[in-house]
Write a structure and sequence with these properties.
Radius of gyration: 29 Å
Oligomer: single chain
CATH topology of the largest domain: Aldehyde Dehydrogenase, Chain A, domain 1
Number of strands: 22
Distance between the termini: 85 Å
Shape: globular
Structural class: alpha/beta
Strand content: 15-25%
Largest sheet: 7 strands, mixed
CATH architecture of the largest domain: 3-Layer(aba) Sandwich
Number of domains: 3
CATH superfamily of the largest domain: Aldehyde Dehydrogenase, Chain A, domain 1
Strand order of the largest sheet: 12-15-16-11-10-18-19
Length: 530
């Protein structure tokens, strides 16, 4: 059995040893989860919501301890752990506590009185059953517990597979859920690396929710297709920030720093491409360089940027930095590394074809490139394989909105950055190679269920009009009905030319065609050309 050692990126100290989960154990977990899911699905949404909402006071009671585990495991500073990992969870739980019943309730659908006489129709939502949540290392608390809670609110069981870099947080999460007194087997976790994730998918859960990089997302999708198992993929981003000359430049500068360098840039919605209108480019660059120089790294009382979590990720950042400089870019300084702490760098004189403008960097590099007008800003922003989030900066809200609606992204914000993704009522997700599917909001909760369409007939007719026997006469009658409903002309004209056909269906009609015909004859003179 493989054992995984957890080590803090802050100082290299050991955080614990974790025994990997075997394929046989995963199969047993799945069986237990199926039994728990069936039981949990019978609990009404209101009761599920009340029970799950108890996690908020539990988190609040252990806030400092949770922040410390997140910080030690990821390298985040405590403020980022608090605001980036915990606050969105508390907000989402409250949102679903208030709205899950409404979101998941039965939805009636109107029916045609002729096609479905005496019938009612509607859509109900059913949980998938067992949801496998495969979460990343950059936001291992938030990006694990939010899809887990969403699945549970919707009536599913959950098996979590954390990144092997984040195992202490997985242990923490399982401990939090145990305090909710949920059915045995409803929340479990599988410990391991990518191979364990593949084994979990091969066990054939009912839905896979994956958050991570593009290449791993492709592998997850291919693996799930073997069974097949539906997937929701939240993948990478190369998010653009568009700053127009009429923006509040000081605010936009502060936002660019936060958007690009929060958690040392290890954020899927980080600002990774900064486009600034030519008219203010030089002034904005001057502000940006001065502000970047004031940022601090480390876990002291005033630390802004924490440690990078992954050695592999630093290698990607270094490759993008060197590629940019080799192709003529200028940098605010060298790519300085002190242990796992990396000083943020601004790049300018960049080109759209550089790696730092094309590939997800996921680190503290911020390339800036000028644009001339709205059309070029939109073209540059959309010139990307990714389409997750974007921000537009202008005091002219009408212009900013016009630009935003042309961007090929799943989310956008005007005069704000990152924060829109934390809104509990707004669906989170991207387009293009940023994945598909949504979580957060009503749409996100419904994604953890599937729709079931139902029709109930209360008809007492001996048979329906479309039932056997068929005949040429019946064919002509149906043609007449279709012309009456979908054909051209006024209602009077359609009734007149199809009167004989409609009489064949009069017993099924919810309205009196004869009376309507007589009323129309009185209202419209016969001499009129009909």
């Amino acid at each position: 059995m493989t054992t995984f050692q957890a080590v803090s990126p802050i100082d290299g100290l050991a955080l614990g040893s974790f025994a990997g989960t075997s394929p046989e154990t995963i199969q047993q977990q799945l069986q237990a989860a199926r039994l728990a899911a069936r039981r949990w699905a019978t609990v009404d949404t209101n009761q599920r919501s009340r029970q799950l909402a108890r996690i908020n006071p539990i988190i609040m009671a252990e806030l400092d301890a949770i922040c410390d585990v997140i910080s030690r495991t990821t390298g985040k500073v405590h403020t980022e752990a608090l605001l980036g990992e915990i606050y969105p969870v508390l907000d989402l739980v409250r949102y679903y506590q208030k709205n899950a019943v409404r979101i998941l309730c039965h939805q009636g659908v109107p029916t045609s009185p002729f096609a479905f006489p005496g019938a009612t129709a509607g859509i109900s939502r059913q949980p998938y059953g067992v949801v496998a949540v495969i979460s990343p290392w950059n936001f291992p608390f938030q990006l694990s517990i939010i899809p887990m809670l969403s699945a549970l609110f919707a009536g599913n069981a959950v098996i979590l597979k954390m990144s092997e870099l984040s195992l202490p947080i997985g242990q923490l999460l399982i401990g939090l859920f145990k305090q909710l007194d949920l059915p045995e087997g409803l929340v479990q976790w599988a410990i391991g690396d990518g191979e364990t994730g593949a084994q979990l998918i091969d066990a054939a859960p009912d839905l896979v929710f994956f958050t991570g990089g593009l290449e791993t997302g492709r592998a997850v999708m291919q693996r799930a297709a073997r069974h097949p198992v539906p997937v929701l993929l939240e993948l990478g981003g190369k998010d653009a920030m568009l700053v127009f000359a009429d923006a509040h430049l000081q605010r936009a500068c502060a936002a660019a720093l936060y958007g690009a360098f929060s958690h040392s840039g290890q954020v899927c919605i980080a600002v990774e491409r900064l486009y600034v209108q030519q008219d203010c480019h030089d002034d904005f660059l001057h502000l940006l360089l001065a502000a970047t120089a004031q940022l601090t790294i480390g876990h002291g009382a005033a630390g802004d940027l924490g440690a990078m979590t992954s050695e592999r990720q630093f290698a990607i950042v270094q490759a993008h930095y060197q590629d940019a400089l080799a192709k003529g870019a200028k940098a605010s300084g060298p790519l300085e590394r002190q242990g796992n702490y990396v000083r943020p760098v601004v790049l300018w004189n960049v080109r759209q074809d550089m790696r730092v403008m094309r590939e997800e960097t996921f680190g503290p590099l911020l390339p800036i490139l000028p644009f001339t007008d709205e059309a070029e800003a939109v073209r540059l922003a959309n010139d990307s394989d990714f389409g997750l989030n974007a921000s537009i900066w202008s005091r002219d809200i009408a212009k900013a909105t016009r630009v935003a609606r042309q961007l090929q992204v799943g989310m956008w914000a005007i005069n704000d950055v990152l924060k829109n993704a934390g809104h509990p009522g707004l669906p989170f997700g991207g387009v293009k190679k940023s994945g598909f599917g949504r979580y957060h909001g009503a749409e996100g909760l419904r994604n953890f269920t599937y729709p079931v369409s139902g029709l109930t007939s209360r008809s007492t007719f001996p048979k329906e009009p479309n039932w056997f026997p068929y005949s040429e006469a019946r064919y002509q009658q149906f043609k007449g009905y279709l012309d009456f409903v979908y054909g051209t002309g006024t209602l009077y004209q359609r009734i007149k030319r199809n009167w004989q056909a409609l009489q064949a269906f009069r017993e099924y009609s919810a309205f009196d065609l004869t009376q309507r015909w007589q009323n129309l004859q009185l209202l419209l003179p016969w001499k009129r050309d009909l």
